[in-house]
Design a protein that fits this description.
heterodimer, A: mainly alpha, Arc Repressor Mutant, subunit A, 2 domains, 3-stranded antiparallel sheet, 11 helices, elongated, B: mainly alpha, Four Helix Bundle (Hemerythrin (Met), subunit A), 9 helices
Chain lengths: 245, 215
Protein backbone atom coordinates (compact mmCIF):
# COMPACT_ATOMS: atom_id res chain seq x y z
CA UNK A 1 0.00 0.00 0.00
CA UNK A 2 1.06 3.59 -0.54
CA UNK A 3 2.51 5.49 2.34
CA UNK A 4 -0.08 8.02 3.47
CA UNK A 5 2.37 10.87 3.80
CA UNK A 6 3.65 9.98 0.37
CA UNK A 7 0.15 10.11 -1.00
CA UNK A 8 -0.22 13.72 0.04
CA UNK A 9 3.32 14.60 -0.89
CA UNK A 10 3.05 13.28 -4.38
CA UNK A 11 -0.41 14.47 -5.06
CA UNK A 12 -0.94 18.16 -5.13
CA UNK A 13 -4.32 17.28 -6.49
CA UNK A 14 -5.47 15.74 -3.23
CA UNK A 15 -7.71 18.69 -2.63
CA UNK A 16 -9.50 18.11 -5.91
CA UNK A 17 -10.85 14.86 -4.61
CA UNK A 18 -12.56 16.85 -1.91
CA UNK A 19 -14.34 19.09 -4.35
CA UNK A 20 -15.37 16.15 -6.45
CA UNK A 21 -16.99 14.07 -3.80
CA UNK A 22 -18.07 16.52 -1.15
CA UNK A 23 -20.78 19.12 -0.98
CA UNK A 24 -19.89 22.68 -1.72
CA UNK A 25 -19.77 23.53 1.98
CA UNK A 26 -16.06 22.93 1.82
CA UNK A 27 -15.30 25.81 -0.49
CA UNK A 28 -18.22 28.19 -0.63
CA UNK A 29 -17.84 30.71 2.17
CA UNK A 30 -14.82 31.90 4.13
CA UNK A 31 -15.22 30.19 7.44
CA UNK A 32 -18.22 28.00 6.67
CA UNK A 33 -17.40 24.45 7.70
CA UNK A 34 -19.19 21.36 8.93
CA UNK A 35 -18.55 19.81 12.33
CA UNK A 36 -18.04 16.38 10.93
CA UNK A 37 -14.74 17.33 9.30
CA UNK A 38 -11.65 17.20 11.41
CA UNK A 39 -10.28 20.54 12.57
CA UNK A 40 -7.18 19.98 10.48
CA UNK A 41 -9.35 19.54 7.41
CA UNK A 42 -11.21 22.75 8.18
CA UNK A 43 -7.99 24.67 8.62
CA UNK A 44 -6.62 23.23 5.39
CA UNK A 45 -9.70 24.28 3.42
CA UNK A 46 -9.86 27.76 4.92
CA UNK A 47 -6.21 28.60 4.37
CA UNK A 48 -6.16 27.09 0.90
CA UNK A 49 -9.24 29.05 -0.05
CA UNK A 50 -7.64 32.33 0.95
CA UNK A 51 -4.51 31.55 -1.03
CA UNK A 52 -6.39 30.48 -4.14
CA UNK A 53 -8.64 33.53 -4.06
CA UNK A 54 -5.53 35.64 -3.57
CA UNK A 55 -6.66 37.11 -0.28
CA UNK A 56 -3.15 36.08 0.74
CA UNK A 57 -0.85 37.47 -1.89
CA UNK A 58 2.18 35.69 -3.38
CA UNK A 59 5.19 36.11 -1.08
CA UNK A 60 2.86 37.15 1.77
CA UNK A 61 4.18 35.93 5.12
CA UNK A 62 1.93 33.69 7.17
CA UNK A 63 2.56 32.91 10.81
CA UNK A 64 1.11 30.05 12.83
CA UNK A 65 0.08 32.46 15.54
CA UNK A 66 -1.62 34.77 13.06
CA UNK A 67 -3.47 31.93 11.37
CA UNK A 68 -4.49 30.39 14.68
CA UNK A 69 -5.97 33.71 15.75
CA UNK A 70 -7.60 34.41 12.41
CA UNK A 71 -9.42 31.08 12.20
CA UNK A 72 -9.75 30.36 15.88
CA UNK A 73 -8.06 26.97 15.47
CA UNK A 74 -5.52 25.55 17.87
CA UNK A 75 -1.90 24.92 16.96
CA UNK A 76 -2.00 21.14 16.43
CA UNK A 77 -4.63 20.85 13.71
CA UNK A 78 -3.25 24.06 12.22
CA UNK A 79 0.24 22.55 11.94
CA UNK A 80 -1.19 19.50 10.22
CA UNK A 81 -3.01 21.68 7.71
CA UNK A 82 0.06 23.83 7.07
CA UNK A 83 2.21 20.75 6.60
CA UNK A 84 -0.15 19.48 3.94
CA UNK A 85 -0.22 22.78 2.08
CA UNK A 86 3.56 22.91 2.34
CA UNK A 87 3.85 19.43 0.81
CA UNK A 88 1.69 20.58 -2.09
CA UNK A 89 4.22 23.33 -2.66
CA UNK A 90 1.65 26.07 -2.30
CA UNK A 91 3.54 27.58 0.64
CA UNK A 92 7.21 27.30 1.49
CA UNK A 93 9.44 27.98 4.49
CA UNK A 94 12.39 30.33 4.85
CA UNK A 95 15.36 29.39 7.03
CA UNK A 96 13.98 31.51 9.83
CA UNK A 97 10.83 29.42 9.77
CA UNK A 98 8.61 32.04 8.15
CA UNK A 99 5.95 30.65 5.82
CA UNK A 100 5.46 32.29 2.47
CA UNK A 101 2.82 31.88 -0.18
CA UNK A 102 4.59 30.56 -3.22
CA UNK A 103 4.33 32.50 -6.43
CA UNK A 104 3.02 30.49 -9.37
CA UNK A 105 6.01 30.29 -11.65
CA UNK A 106 6.00 30.50 -15.39
CA UNK A 107 7.43 26.99 -15.42
CA UNK A 108 4.42 25.71 -13.54
CA UNK A 109 2.13 27.62 -15.86
CA UNK A 110 3.72 26.05 -18.92
CA UNK A 111 3.47 22.62 -17.29
CA UNK A 112 -0.24 23.15 -16.80
CA UNK A 113 -0.63 24.22 -20.41
CA UNK A 114 1.10 21.03 -21.57
CA UNK A 115 -1.06 18.75 -19.43
CA UNK A 116 -4.22 20.56 -20.50
CA UNK A 117 -3.15 20.33 -24.14
CA UNK A 118 -2.96 16.56 -23.86
CA UNK A 119 -6.10 15.97 -21.82
CA UNK A 120 -8.38 18.61 -23.30
CA UNK A 121 -7.29 17.57 -26.77
CA UNK A 122 -8.56 14.10 -25.89
CA UNK A 123 -11.74 15.61 -24.46
CA UNK A 124 -12.40 17.56 -27.66
CA UNK A 125 -11.95 14.40 -29.74
CA UNK A 126 -14.35 12.54 -27.49
CA UNK A 127 -16.90 15.37 -27.58
CA UNK A 128 -16.81 15.20 -31.38
CA UNK A 129 -17.99 11.60 -31.20
CA UNK A 130 -20.89 12.55 -28.97
CA UNK A 131 -22.27 15.61 -30.72
CA UNK A 132 -23.14 19.21 -30.00
CA UNK A 133 -24.60 20.28 -26.68
CA UNK A 134 -26.48 23.35 -25.44
CA UNK A 135 -23.35 24.42 -23.59
CA UNK A 136 -21.30 24.35 -26.76
CA UNK A 137 -23.97 26.24 -28.71
CA UNK A 138 -24.05 28.92 -26.02
CA UNK A 139 -20.28 29.13 -26.04
CA UNK A 140 -20.21 29.46 -29.80
CA UNK A 141 -22.62 32.36 -29.63
CA UNK A 142 -20.60 34.01 -26.85
CA UNK A 143 -17.38 33.66 -28.81
CA UNK A 144 -18.96 35.18 -31.92
CA UNK A 145 -20.05 38.12 -29.74
CA UNK A 146 -16.49 38.39 -28.45
CA UNK A 147 -15.16 38.78 -31.93
CA UNK A 148 -17.41 41.78 -32.35
CA UNK A 149 -16.62 43.63 -29.12
CA UNK A 150 -13.09 42.55 -28.22
CA UNK A 151 -11.57 45.92 -27.46
CA UNK A 152 -13.89 46.64 -24.59
CA UNK A 153 -13.76 43.31 -22.87
CA UNK A 154 -12.34 43.16 -19.34
CA UNK A 155 -10.08 40.28 -18.32
CA UNK A 156 -12.54 38.87 -15.81
CA UNK A 157 -15.35 38.87 -18.33
CA UNK A 158 -13.34 36.95 -20.85
CA UNK A 159 -12.07 34.59 -18.14
CA UNK A 160 -15.67 33.57 -17.41
CA UNK A 161 -16.41 32.95 -21.07
CA UNK A 162 -13.17 31.05 -21.41
CA UNK A 163 -14.19 28.97 -18.38
CA UNK A 164 -17.56 28.28 -19.96
CA UNK A 165 -15.97 27.16 -23.22
CA UNK A 166 -13.56 24.70 -21.64
CA UNK A 167 -16.23 23.35 -19.28
CA UNK A 168 -18.62 22.94 -22.21
CA UNK A 169 -16.12 20.81 -24.12
CA UNK A 170 -15.36 18.67 -21.07
CA UNK A 171 -19.07 18.24 -20.28
CA UNK A 172 -19.79 17.32 -23.88
CA UNK A 173 -17.06 14.69 -23.56
CA UNK A 174 -18.62 13.36 -20.36
CA UNK A 175 -15.43 13.60 -18.29
CA UNK A 176 -16.29 14.93 -14.81
CA UNK A 177 -12.97 13.94 -13.24
CA UNK A 178 -11.15 15.95 -15.90
CA UNK A 179 -13.55 18.80 -15.13
CA UNK A 180 -12.29 18.84 -11.56
CA UNK A 181 -8.65 18.71 -12.61
CA UNK A 182 -9.02 21.56 -15.09
CA UNK A 183 -10.91 23.65 -12.56
CA UNK A 184 -7.97 23.40 -10.18
CA UNK A 185 -5.45 24.02 -12.96
CA UNK A 186 -7.22 27.19 -13.97
CA UNK A 187 -7.42 28.46 -10.40
CA UNK A 188 -3.68 27.93 -10.06
CA UNK A 189 -2.90 29.46 -13.44
CA UNK A 190 -4.94 32.49 -12.62
CA UNK A 191 -2.63 33.16 -9.67
CA UNK A 192 0.21 33.66 -12.11
CA UNK A 193 0.42 37.25 -13.20
CA UNK A 194 1.15 36.41 -16.84
CA UNK A 195 -2.36 35.11 -17.39
CA UNK A 196 -3.76 38.46 -16.41
CA UNK A 197 -2.10 40.43 -19.15
CA UNK A 198 -4.66 42.13 -21.32
CA UNK A 199 -4.71 40.11 -24.40
CA UNK A 200 -5.92 39.28 -27.84
CA UNK A 201 -9.23 37.85 -26.77
CA UNK A 202 -10.40 37.75 -30.38
CA UNK A 203 -7.54 35.41 -31.28
CA UNK A 204 -8.57 33.10 -28.46
CA UNK A 205 -12.21 33.35 -29.47
CA UNK A 206 -11.24 32.22 -32.97
CA UNK A 207 -9.38 29.25 -31.51
CA UNK A 208 -12.43 28.30 -29.46
CA UNK A 209 -14.69 28.54 -32.50
CA UNK A 210 -12.34 26.23 -34.39
CA UNK A 211 -12.77 23.57 -31.72
CA UNK A 212 -16.53 23.97 -31.53
CA UNK A 213 -16.88 23.76 -35.32
CA UNK A 214 -14.88 20.54 -35.43
CA UNK A 215 -17.07 19.06 -32.70
CA UNK A 216 -20.18 20.14 -34.61
CA UNK A 217 -18.76 18.43 -37.71
CA UNK A 218 -18.27 15.28 -35.70
CA UNK A 219 -14.58 15.15 -36.59
CA UNK A 220 -12.57 13.85 -33.60
CA UNK A 221 -9.09 14.30 -35.04
CA UNK A 222 -9.85 17.80 -36.21
CA UNK A 223 -11.29 18.68 -32.80
CA UNK A 224 -8.22 17.33 -31.02
CA UNK A 225 -5.93 19.26 -33.38
CA UNK A 226 -7.90 22.46 -32.94
CA UNK A 227 -7.69 22.19 -29.17
CA UNK A 228 -3.98 21.42 -29.27
CA UNK A 229 -3.49 24.37 -31.58
CA UNK A 230 -5.31 26.57 -29.08
CA UNK A 231 -2.93 25.59 -26.30
CA UNK A 232 0.05 26.03 -28.60
CA UNK A 233 -1.11 29.60 -29.10
CA UNK A 234 -1.57 30.09 -25.36
CA UNK A 235 2.00 28.92 -24.85
CA UNK A 236 3.33 31.24 -27.55
CA UNK A 237 1.53 34.20 -26.00
CA UNK A 238 3.07 33.52 -22.59
CA UNK A 239 6.56 33.07 -24.02
CA UNK A 240 6.25 36.24 -26.09
CA UNK A 241 5.19 38.19 -23.04
CA UNK A 242 8.13 36.78 -21.11
CA UNK A 243 10.48 37.82 -23.86
CA UNK A 244 9.47 41.40 -23.27
CA UNK A 245 10.02 41.39 -19.51
CA UNK B 1 0.96 6.59 6.38
CA UNK B 2 2.60 8.58 9.11
CA UNK B 3 1.69 5.92 11.68
CA UNK B 4 1.79 2.17 11.24
CA UNK B 5 -1.43 2.00 13.25
CA UNK B 6 -3.26 4.30 10.84
CA UNK B 7 -1.97 2.24 7.96
CA UNK B 8 -3.22 -0.93 9.57
CA UNK B 9 -6.61 0.68 10.15
CA UNK B 10 -6.71 1.68 6.50
CA UNK B 11 -5.86 -1.80 5.28
CA UNK B 12 -8.40 -3.39 7.56
CA UNK B 13 -11.20 -1.04 6.62
CA UNK B 14 -10.49 -1.65 2.92
CA UNK B 15 -10.61 -5.37 3.62
CA UNK B 16 -13.97 -4.92 5.33
CA UNK B 17 -15.27 -3.23 2.19
CA UNK B 18 -13.99 -5.97 -0.09
CA UNK B 19 -15.28 -8.74 2.13
CA UNK B 20 -18.70 -7.14 2.28
CA UNK B 21 -18.63 -6.53 6.01
CA UNK B 22 -18.94 -2.87 5.10
CA UNK B 23 -21.38 -2.45 2.27
CA UNK B 24 -21.63 0.38 -0.19
CA UNK B 25 -23.69 3.05 1.51
CA UNK B 26 -22.61 2.07 5.03
CA UNK B 27 -21.45 4.92 7.23
CA UNK B 28 -17.82 5.08 8.30
CA UNK B 29 -18.00 6.02 11.96
CA UNK B 30 -14.83 6.63 13.92
CA UNK B 31 -16.07 5.33 17.23
CA UNK B 32 -17.71 2.21 15.87
CA UNK B 33 -14.76 1.33 13.67
CA UNK B 34 -12.36 2.04 16.50
CA UNK B 35 -14.21 -0.50 18.62
CA UNK B 36 -14.37 -3.03 15.82
CA UNK B 37 -10.65 -2.68 15.07
CA UNK B 38 -9.71 -2.30 18.71
CA UNK B 39 -7.93 0.99 18.05
CA UNK B 40 -8.22 4.55 19.29
CA UNK B 41 -10.02 7.13 17.21
CA UNK B 42 -6.95 8.96 15.95
CA UNK B 43 -5.53 6.29 13.62
CA UNK B 44 -9.06 5.40 12.54
CA UNK B 45 -9.74 9.03 11.68
CA UNK B 46 -6.56 9.22 9.63
CA UNK B 47 -7.51 6.02 7.81
CA UNK B 48 -10.99 7.34 7.05
CA UNK B 49 -9.46 10.59 5.78
CA UNK B 50 -7.27 8.67 3.39
CA UNK B 51 -10.19 6.58 2.21
CA UNK B 52 -12.08 9.78 1.52
CA UNK B 53 -9.16 11.32 -0.37
CA UNK B 54 -8.91 8.20 -2.52
CA UNK B 55 -12.57 8.56 -3.37
CA UNK B 56 -13.89 5.48 -1.59
CA UNK B 57 -16.07 7.39 0.82
CA UNK B 58 -18.31 10.36 0.27
CA UNK B 59 -20.28 12.69 2.52
CA UNK B 60 -23.93 11.76 2.37
CA UNK B 61 -26.14 13.47 4.89
CA UNK B 62 -24.33 13.58 8.20
CA UNK B 63 -21.93 10.75 7.56
CA UNK B 64 -19.16 9.64 5.32
CA UNK B 65 -20.42 6.60 3.47
CA UNK B 66 -18.67 3.85 1.61
CA UNK B 67 -18.79 4.16 -2.13
CA UNK B 68 -17.20 2.13 -4.86
CA UNK B 69 -15.82 3.44 -8.04
CA UNK B 70 -18.35 3.28 -10.82
CA UNK B 71 -17.29 1.73 -14.09
CA UNK B 72 -17.68 5.17 -15.69
CA UNK B 73 -15.13 6.55 -13.25
CA UNK B 74 -12.73 3.70 -13.95
CA UNK B 75 -13.13 4.33 -17.69
CA UNK B 76 -12.37 8.00 -17.23
CA UNK B 77 -9.42 7.48 -14.90
CA UNK B 78 -7.82 5.14 -17.40
CA UNK B 79 -8.64 7.35 -20.39
CA UNK B 80 -6.78 10.22 -18.75
CA UNK B 81 -3.90 7.98 -17.66
CA UNK B 82 -3.62 6.53 -21.15
CA UNK B 83 -3.17 9.98 -22.68
CA UNK B 84 -0.59 11.13 -20.15
CA UNK B 85 1.31 7.86 -19.91
CA UNK B 86 1.55 7.26 -23.65
CA UNK B 87 3.01 10.78 -23.87
CA UNK B 88 5.41 9.88 -21.03
CA UNK B 89 6.44 6.65 -22.74
CA UNK B 90 7.44 8.68 -25.77
CA UNK B 91 9.58 11.12 -23.79
CA UNK B 92 11.12 8.11 -22.01
CA UNK B 93 12.88 7.24 -25.26
CA UNK B 94 15.59 9.64 -24.22
CA UNK B 95 16.21 8.01 -20.85
CA UNK B 96 19.77 6.77 -20.33
CA UNK B 97 20.19 3.10 -21.08
CA UNK B 98 21.53 2.28 -17.60
CA UNK B 99 18.29 3.43 -16.01
CA UNK B 100 16.21 1.19 -18.24
CA UNK B 101 18.53 -1.77 -17.71
CA UNK B 102 18.41 -1.36 -13.95
CA UNK B 103 14.59 -1.14 -13.98
CA UNK B 104 14.50 -4.28 -16.07
CA UNK B 105 16.66 -6.07 -13.53
CA UNK B 106 14.39 -4.98 -10.70
CA UNK B 107 11.31 -6.32 -12.46
CA UNK B 108 12.98 -9.61 -13.33
CA UNK B 109 13.96 -9.98 -9.71
CA UNK B 110 10.38 -9.32 -8.65
CA UNK B 111 9.13 -11.97 -11.06
CA UNK B 112 11.56 -14.41 -9.45
CA UNK B 113 10.46 -13.79 -5.89
CA UNK B 114 6.75 -13.60 -6.67
CA UNK B 115 3.95 -11.30 -5.56
CA UNK B 116 3.70 -12.08 -1.90
CA UNK B 117 6.53 -9.97 -0.50
CA UNK B 118 4.95 -6.97 1.24
CA UNK B 119 4.70 -3.80 -0.80
CA UNK B 120 7.35 -4.67 -3.34
CA UNK B 121 4.90 -5.31 -6.17
CA UNK B 122 3.29 -1.92 -5.76
CA UNK B 123 6.62 -0.17 -5.29
CA UNK B 124 8.04 -1.63 -8.46
CA UNK B 125 4.92 -0.62 -10.35
CA UNK B 126 5.28 2.89 -8.93
CA UNK B 127 8.95 2.95 -9.88
CA UNK B 128 8.26 1.83 -13.44
CA UNK B 129 5.47 4.29 -14.14
CA UNK B 130 7.30 6.96 -12.15
CA UNK B 131 10.42 6.56 -14.25
CA UNK B 132 8.41 7.23 -17.37
CA UNK B 133 6.48 10.24 -16.05
CA UNK B 134 9.71 11.67 -14.60
CA UNK B 135 11.17 11.72 -18.12
CA UNK B 136 8.65 14.43 -19.04
CA UNK B 137 10.22 16.81 -16.49
CA UNK B 138 6.70 18.09 -15.96
CA UNK B 139 5.89 18.10 -12.26
CA UNK B 140 2.24 18.85 -12.91
CA UNK B 141 1.96 15.86 -15.22
CA UNK B 142 3.74 13.65 -12.69
CA UNK B 143 1.38 14.71 -9.88
CA UNK B 144 -1.68 14.27 -12.06
CA UNK B 145 -0.74 10.72 -13.00
CA UNK B 146 0.03 9.91 -9.37
CA UNK B 147 -3.33 11.27 -8.31
CA UNK B 148 -5.11 9.15 -10.91
CA UNK B 149 -3.19 6.04 -9.88
CA UNK B 150 -4.08 6.67 -6.25
CA UNK B 151 -7.75 6.31 -7.04
CA UNK B 152 -7.39 2.68 -8.10
CA UNK B 153 -4.55 1.63 -5.80
CA UNK B 154 -6.87 -0.54 -3.73
CA UNK B 155 -7.09 -2.81 -6.75
CA UNK B 156 -3.60 -4.13 -6.26
CA UNK B 157 -2.44 -7.57 -7.25
CA UNK B 158 -4.07 -9.22 -4.26
CA UNK B 159 -7.45 -8.22 -5.60
CA UNK B 160 -6.90 -8.44 -9.32
CA UNK B 161 -5.63 -11.89 -10.13
CA UNK B 162 -3.40 -12.47 -13.08
CA UNK B 163 -2.10 -8.95 -13.35
CA UNK B 164 1.07 -9.64 -11.44
CA UNK B 165 2.59 -11.83 -14.14
CA UNK B 166 1.02 -10.17 -17.18
CA UNK B 167 1.52 -6.64 -15.92
CA UNK B 168 5.20 -7.15 -15.30
CA UNK B 169 5.71 -8.91 -18.61
CA UNK B 170 4.13 -5.90 -20.26
CA UNK B 171 6.53 -3.68 -18.31
CA UNK B 172 9.46 -5.67 -19.69
CA UNK B 173 8.21 -5.43 -23.28
CA UNK B 174 7.89 -1.67 -22.94
CA UNK B 175 11.42 -1.42 -21.57
CA UNK B 176 12.73 -3.52 -24.45
CA UNK B 177 11.03 -1.26 -26.98
CA UNK B 178 12.53 1.78 -25.23
CA UNK B 179 16.03 0.36 -25.50
CA UNK B 180 15.41 -0.45 -29.16
CA UNK B 181 14.23 3.12 -29.73
CA UNK B 182 10.97 2.01 -31.34
CA UNK B 183 8.66 4.99 -30.80
CA UNK B 184 5.44 3.59 -32.30
CA UNK B 185 5.93 0.27 -30.56
CA UNK B 186 6.56 1.96 -27.19
CA UNK B 187 3.37 4.01 -27.45
CA UNK B 188 1.29 1.05 -28.62
CA UNK B 189 2.56 -1.19 -25.83
CA UNK B 190 1.93 1.43 -23.17
CA UNK B 191 -1.60 2.04 -24.44
CA UNK B 192 -2.20 -1.71 -24.36
CA UNK B 193 -0.76 -2.01 -20.85
CA UNK B 194 -3.09 0.68 -19.54
CA UNK B 195 -6.08 -0.87 -21.34
CA UNK B 196 -5.30 -4.27 -19.84
CA UNK B 197 -5.06 -2.84 -16.32
CA UNK B 198 -8.39 -1.12 -16.85
CA UNK B 199 -10.03 -4.30 -18.10
CA UNK B 200 -8.90 -6.26 -15.08
CA UNK B 201 -10.25 -3.68 -12.66
CA UNK B 202 -13.59 -3.39 -14.47
CA UNK B 203 -13.92 -7.14 -14.24
CA UNK B 204 -13.14 -7.05 -10.54
CA UNK B 205 -15.65 -4.25 -9.97
CA UNK B 206 -18.34 -6.21 -11.73
CA UNK B 207 -17.81 -8.91 -9.13
CA UNK B 208 -19.20 -6.60 -6.49
CA UNK B 209 -22.72 -7.20 -7.67
CA UNK B 210 -25.95 -5.46 -6.91
CA UNK B 211 -25.78 -5.79 -3.14
CA UNK B 212 -22.63 -3.70 -3.07
CA UNK B 213 -20.52 -6.49 -1.68
CA UNK B 214 -18.66 -9.37 -3.15
CA UNK B 215 -21.01 -12.27 -3.57
Amino acid sequence: MLDYAQAFAISSMASIQMTLYEDSEVKSNGHGMTEKETLAQQAYNAIKQKILSQQYQPEAVLTERGLAAEFGISRTPLRSAISRIEKEGVVYRLDNGALLVRRVSVEQLLEIVQVRRILEGAAAARAATKGMTKGLEASRKAMLDCLREDNNMAFDDFWHLDDAFHNAVIDAAGLPILGGLVREFRVTARRCTITRVHDQFSAQAKDHLGVIDAIAEGNPEKARSAMEHHFDNVRIRFLNWLAQV
Amino acid sequence: MSEPLAKRAYTQIIEMIFSGELKVGDALQEAKLGERLDMSRTPVREAIDRIKVEGLAVKSGRFLRVRLLTSAEVEEIFLLRRELEVYSARTALKLPREQIVSMRARIESLLQTGPSIGDEHWQVDEAFHGMLTASTHNQTLISTVNDLRLRTCIFDHTRVRGRFLKGNQEHLHILDALVAGQEDQVMELMAQHIDNAKGAILERLAGFGVSGSLS
